[in-house]
C-alpha cells in the first residue's frame, strides 16, 4: 500500500504532476501533520531571523524599526508558504487538496501584500522622523511631510489593487473575465472617465496640491469664512481643523479653483488687528502709551510691531486701529484678545471721555435760545436793592464750554503710529509691498526682449536646417564638406 511519502516524493525530487490516486484518511492526516510541522519549522525560522536581525542591528534604528514592524507579516509569509508548498507538491487528486492549495495560495498573496504595506509604512516613519515639524521654521519639513503622506496613500492603494488583482487572477474564471475587460478597455475607459469625472478631477487636484507646494499639512488657512489648520490631505479631499475643533471637509478641487487665505505660505508670523470706535475727545497719546505698556508686558508679543493709528474720523466716532505682531496665527489671536481687554479696561477707568457717545442736537435749537436771550420781552431795570415781580425772567442759554488749554505733547522719538514709514523696519515693509523697482522692471523688460530674440533666432536656425535637409545646396555641400579620398584597392 502506498504511503504518504510516495505522494510527497516530488517535494524532495522536484515538481511533479498531480497523481490520480486519492489519499486515504491516514495519508491525509499524515499530509496535514507534515504541513503543520513545516509551518512550525517556518515559524521557528522566522523567530531566529528576527533575533539575528535584532542582534546585528542593535545600534541601528532602521534595523530595529524593520524588525519590529515586519515581524508579523514576515513570519506569516514563511508559515503559509511552507504549508502551501507541502500541499502543492503532493500528488493526490482529492478535491479538498485543490481547495486547500487555493486557500493557502491566497493567504501567501495576502501576506506578501501585508509585508509590502508594512515596508511602505516603515519608510514613511523613517522619512517623517527625519523631517520634523516641532521646530521654529518648519515650512520645508511640512512640505516634504505632505508629499510623503500623499505618496504613502498612493503606494498603499496600488499595493491593495495589485494584491486583490493577484488573488483574483488565481481563479480561471477571473482570468477569462479579465481578458474580456482588457479587450474592451477602450470603451470602458471612456465610460469610466465620464462617470468618474468628478472623482478624477479631485485626484488630480490632490496631486497638484501635494507636489506644487500650494498647500501643506499644518498650514493655517481661512476657507468659507472659517479659520483653521490643514489636518489631512487625501487623494480626493482636504480636512481643515477649525479653531473650535470642528472639521471642515472640502474637495481637493476647492483649493485649485477657489481663492482662499493662506496665513503660512511663506512664514507663520502675522499682524493682529484690534479696532476701536472711540469719542473725539480721546487722548490718543495716552492710549498709545498704554498700548505699549500692555504689549511689552505680554509674553505673546514677538517684539516686532506695535502700532496705534487713527484710521478714520467720520460721524460720531473716531476709529482707532492697533496692530500687534505674533509668531503665528493662534498666538496673534490670543494677543489681540489680551490687548482688546486691557484697552477697554483702561478707557473705562482712566479715559472715560473716550468712551463712544451719540450726540443728538435739534436743528436751530441753539440759535433759538440765543435769540430768546437777546430779543425777548423788554427788560426793565429795577431800582437798586428792589425786586420787581413783574420783570421778565432771563431765559438761560446753553452753557458755553470753557476753553481748556492742554499742555504741549512731547512726541516720543519712536514713530509707533506708522506702519510703513518712520523706521527702518517700516521702510523695509513698505518696499516689500511697493512692487518691483524701476531697475528691476528695466531688467525684466530687457530679459523678455533677450528671450524673444533668442526664440526668433532659434526658429530661423530650425527653418534653415529644415530647408537644407529638404533641398541641399550642392555648392554649399562641396565647399563645406572636404573631399574623401578613395580607398586603394
UniProtKB/TrEMBL annotation:
Membrane spanning stretches: 31-53, 74-92, 104-128, 149-171
Domain Mechanosensitive ion channel MscS: start-end pairs: 199-265
Segments for region (Disordered): 376-401, 459-489
GO biological process terms, semicolon-separated: transmembrane transport
Annotated keywords: Membrane, Transmembrane, Transmembrane helix
SUPFAM superfamilies (UniProt xref): Sm-like ribonucleoproteins
Signal peptide limits: none
Comp. bias intervals (Basic and acidic residues): 377-391, 459-472
Assigned GO CC terms: membrane
Protein name: Small-conductance mechanosensitive channel
Amino acid at each position: 500500500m502506498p504511503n504518504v511519502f510516495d505522494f510527497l516524493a516530488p517535494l524532495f525530487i522536484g515538481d511533479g504532476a498531480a497523481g490520480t490516486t486519492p489519499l486515504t484518511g491516514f495519508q491525509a492526516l499524515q499530509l496535514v501533520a507534515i504541513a503543520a510541522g513545516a509551518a512550525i519549522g517556518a515559524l521557528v525560522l522566522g523567530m531566529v531571523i528576527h533575533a539575528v536581525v535584532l542582534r546585528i542591528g542593535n545600534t541601528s534604528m532602521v534595523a530595529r524599526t524593520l524588525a519590529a514592524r515586519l515581524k508579523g507579516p514576515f513570519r506569516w509569509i514563511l508559515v503559509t508558504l511552507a504549508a502551501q508548498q507541502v500541499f502543492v507538491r503532493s500528488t493526490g487528486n482529492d478535491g479538498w487538496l485543490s481547495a486547500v492549495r487555493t486557500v493557502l495560495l491566497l493567504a501567501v498573496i495576502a501576506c506578501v501584500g501585508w509585508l509590502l504595506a508594512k515596508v511602505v509604512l516603515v519608510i514613511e516613519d523613517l522619512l517623517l522622523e527625519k523631517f520634523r515639524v516641532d521646530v521654529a521654521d518648519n515650512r520645508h519639513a511640512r512640505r516634504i511631510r505632505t508629499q510623503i503622506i500623499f505618496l504613502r496613500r498612493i503606494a498603499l492603494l496600488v499595493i491593495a489593487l495589485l494584491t486583490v488583482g493577484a488573488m483574483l487572477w488565481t481563479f480561471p474564471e477571473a482570468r477569462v473575465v479579465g481578458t474580456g475587460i482588457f479587450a474592451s478597455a477602450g470603451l470602458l475607459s471612456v465610460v469610466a472617465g465620464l462617470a468618474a469625472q468628478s472623482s478624477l478631477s479631485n485626484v488630480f487636484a490632490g496631486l497638484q496640491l501635494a507636489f506644487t507646494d500650494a498647500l501643506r499639512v499644518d498650514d493655517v488657512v481661512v476657507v468659507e469664512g472659517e479659520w483653521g489648520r490643514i489636518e489631512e490631505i487625501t487623494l480626493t479631499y482636504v480636512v481643515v481643523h477649525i479653531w473650535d475643533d470642528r472639521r471642515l471637509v472640502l474637495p481637493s478641487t476647492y483649493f485649485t479653483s477657489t481663492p482662499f487665505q493662506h496665513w503660512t505660505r511663506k512664514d507663520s508670523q502675522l499682524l493682529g488687528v484690534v479696532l476701536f470706535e472711540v469719542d473725539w475727545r480721546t487722548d490718543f497719546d495716552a492710549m498709545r502709551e498704554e498700548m505699549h505698556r500692555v504689549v511689552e508686558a505680554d509674553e505673546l508679543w514677538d517684539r516686532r510691531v506695535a502700532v496705534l493709528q487713527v484710521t478714520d474720523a467720520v460721524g460720531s466716532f473716531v476709529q482707532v486701529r492697533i496692530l500687534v505682531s505674533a509668531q503665528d496665527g493662534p498666538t496673534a489671536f490670543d494677543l489681540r484678545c489680551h490687548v482688546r481687554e486691557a484697552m477697554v479696561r483702561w478707557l473705562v477707568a482712566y479715559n472715560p471721555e473716550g468712551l463712544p457717545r451719540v450726540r443728538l442736537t435739534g436743528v436751530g435749537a441753539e440759535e433759538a435760545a440765543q435769540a430768546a436771550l437777546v430779543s425777548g420781552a423788554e427788560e426793565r431795570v429795577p431800582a437798586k436793592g428792589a425786586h420787581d415781580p413783574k420783570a421778565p425772567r432771563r431765559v438761560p442759554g446753553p452753557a458755553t464750554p470753557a476753553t481748556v488749554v492742554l499742555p504741549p505733547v512731547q512726541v516720543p522719538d519712536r514713530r509707533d503710529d506708522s506702519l510703513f514709514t518712520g523706521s527702518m523696519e517700516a521702510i523695509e515693509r513698505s518696499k516689500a509691498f511697493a512692487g518691483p523697482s524701476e531697475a528691476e522692471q528695466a531688467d525684466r523688460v530687457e530679459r523678455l526682449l533677450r528671450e524673444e530674440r533668442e526664440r526668433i533666432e532659434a526658429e530661423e536656425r530650425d527653418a534653415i536646417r529644415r530647408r537644407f535637409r529638404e533641398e541641399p545646396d550642392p555648392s554649399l555641400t562641396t565647399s563645406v564638406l572636404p573631399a574623401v579620398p578613395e580607398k586603394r584597392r
